[in-house]
Amino acid sequence: MIMRNQDFKDEDRYLRAEKKVKQVKGFYLHLFWYVLINVSLLVMIYINLNADEEFFQWEHFATPFFWGIGLGFHWLGVFGKNFIFSKDWEERKIKEFMEKDKHEFWE
Questions:
Q1: Which of 97, 65, 82 lies closest to 24, judged by CA?
Q2: How many Cα atoms within 13 Å fall on the side-chain side of residue 46?
Q3: How many structural domains compose the chain?
Q4: Which tops the pLDDT comparison, 13 or 63?
Q5: pTM higher than 0.90, yes or no?
């Protein structure tokens, strides 16, 4: 029975790790396309500028700016939830409170 329980735990950990890898891969793919498309877009804008037109205008950087906000939220979704309060931190706190409760209950 203990062996089966361990097998389920190992399989569960594997599935969680596999899901996390897919999320990280998705973020890096998003980052790749963000850089490629926005650099290409800015180069095309720069090449097609009129002689009297200024490059550093808000409308030239609106797409990278707003897409960058979306990319930031994507980063938070993938890495942010464990950025401060990781799963390891949660488990340590649970054990800490259980130990504290155990000692207070029996004393």
A1: 82
A2: 8
A3: 1
A4: 63
A5: no
